[in-house]
Amino acid sequence: MITLTGSTLTLEEMRRILFQQEEIQLDTEALKRVQKSRDSVDRIVANKETIYGINTGFGKFSDVSIDEKDVRALQLHLIRSHACGIGDAFPEMVSRAIVVLRLNALLKGFSGIRVEVVERLAFMANHHIHPVIPSQGSLGASGDLAPLSHLALVLLGEGAIWNEGQKIDASNVWKDRGMDNIVLEAKEGLALINGTQAMTAQGVVNYLEAETLAYQSEWIAAMTMESLRGIRDAFREEIHIARGYQEQIAVASRMLEWMDGSQLISAQGEHRVQDAYSLRCIPQIHGASWQVLNYVKEKLEIEMNAATDNPLIFEDGEVVVSGGNFHGQPIAFAMDFLKLGVAELANVSERRIERLVNPQLNDGLPAFLSPEPGLQSGAMILQYAAASLVSENKTLAHPASVDSIPSSANQEDHVSMGTIGSRHAAQIIQNARRVLAIETLCALQGTEYRGVEKMAPKLRAKWDELRKVCPSVVEDRIFHHDVERIADHLYEDTGKSK
Predict the structure, then answer these.
(1) pTM
(2) Which residues are part of the catalytic machinery?
């Protein structure tokens, strides 16, 4: 059971919530803060004070006053009109993350929402009531308005939810559980949708998958090193200490651990003086991607525990301030940065694939690792596929955050496009996993030609594990199936605590 406080949620806890389906509970002190904030909103409404989002219109309509009798209708109209998400839905896991992250933000007690609503969100998480949320249509400021409106719809008994991978109408979601639909009071609609939780939720899933992939890329690269009789000297600790990047030092250390005891890895001058950069510079290249991951982790863990709606209520309701915490620029930059870090893991992997299959570069392995070169094509088109994926990644890696289009009659004249960046990062990660799956397939075959009995013990254990997923290539076959099975096998590690 994970306790949500509004300020202490970590990525490892999100891994347990998302991949291990761990339940959540609400911190008692956080609920007290929520109630005090709600009391403030009720007082503002009763006193007929004019406060943005409580008794005014939204965006360009912020100068339109709303009568007390219409505040419920205002919130309902807000949710329905803003629920205009476009395109394919976010994966259900991302939807679950959106629910949890929006709930955690509301628990900070700055949003003026009722305890009843936050408890209903917690019920949704614990009972796997996951909204169907279209993935397109957000500018990333004022937050993720369109996606989060589809979350809010479910509270109202509208919209759609996931049910065993299928989309079903949410009209009976609460009736079936003996509960009433939520009727939104003053400010509650705005509190639910004015935030960065769609881009952040996709970003959390992205990070957890990318971190796993970064670790996996090291043993995959080590197996390629064995296939190509790579030189271990380039991983000596003093080289990496001399430069000083801790991530580079750590990658080199882990690589040496993977290759420890190998009879296939060579010494400097034994077969050649130097390896190509895609082998020799693994600590430098992969280490730089770990620097990206560390940056992204820091930003995500801040944003996961941030108040990102508007206005915010402080000092027991005496101060209600309109600001811009809904602006997704920090996550937009983080996701664009993540795209670069993961795309480079795939780029260098593809270069290692080329070395494995190219008879001019693979140190005596069969051309294209073919069982019968010429009669059988072997891994020839596997390299084509990897090249296609990394080329696609290069277009997806263009930063979404450099774009901005004004909205709301130019009131909202600069937006982050962070949700686009987060979605593109997700696609890059899927592509990169398949590139690394192709490298795995080739490295399995390469080490088999060299002699698996000579492999490092830790890599031999990986080889045995993967051969259950991808049998030895003794004849050309439909390699698509092998790539997908290996990719699925790699993905399964994402749910395991690091």
Answers:
(1) 0.95
(2) 52
Residue 210 and residue 165 share a domain: no
Q: How far is CA 315 from CA 48, 109, 321, 391, 430, in A?
A: 19, 11, 11, 53, 46
The 3-state DSSP class for residue 168 equals strand
Instruction: State the Cα angle at 79 between 77 and 80, rounded to 5°.
Output: 65
What confidence tens digit (pLDDT) does each residue in 179-230 have? 999 999 989 999 999 999 999 999 999 999 999 999 999 999 999 999 999 9
Residue 266 β-bridge partners: 231
Secondary structure class of 496 (helix, strand, coil) = coil
- Span 407-432, pLDDT tens digits: 887 777 788 889 999 999 999 999 99
**Does 453 share its domain with 474?**
yes
Q: Assess whether 136 and 191 both reside in one domain.
A: yes
Contact 358, 364 (CB under 8 A): no
Six token digits for residue 358: 């190219």
Residue type, 177: R
Burial class (CB in 10 A: 0-12, 13-18, 19+), 374: exposed
276 contact partners, CB below 8 Å, separation of at least 6: 351, 355, 361
For residues 106 and 34, is the Cβ–Cβ distance under 8 A? yes
Instruction: Please state the domain count of the chain.
Output: 2
User: CA nearest 307: which of 415, 205, 197?
Assistant: 197
Q: Give the separation between CA 125 and CA 103, rounded to whole angstroms.
A: 9
Verify that 175 and 275 share a domain, yes or no. no
Give the residue numbers spanning the domain of 117.
2-195
- Render pLDDT for 123-173 as a digit per residue (tens, 0 to 9): 999 999 999 999 998 998 888 999 999 999 999 999 999 998 899 999 999
Confidence of residue 59 (pLDDT cuts 50, 70, 90): low
Q: Are residues 408 and 432 in the same domain?
A: yes
What is the token pair recorded at 105? 């933000």
Q: What is the pLDDT of residue 62?
A: 66
Q: Record the tokens describing residue 144, joined without a space.
A: 């993720």
Contact 267, 225 (CB under 8 A): no
Contacts of 208 (CB under 8 A, 6+ apart): 11, 14, 15, 18, 19, 494
Task: Please give the backbone phi and psi of residue 221, each rounded to the nearest 5 degrees, phi first.
Answer: -65, -35
What is the per-residue pLDDT for 267? Answer: 94
Contact 71, 184 (CB under 8 A): no
Query: Do 172 and 212 sit in the same domain of this protein?
Result: no
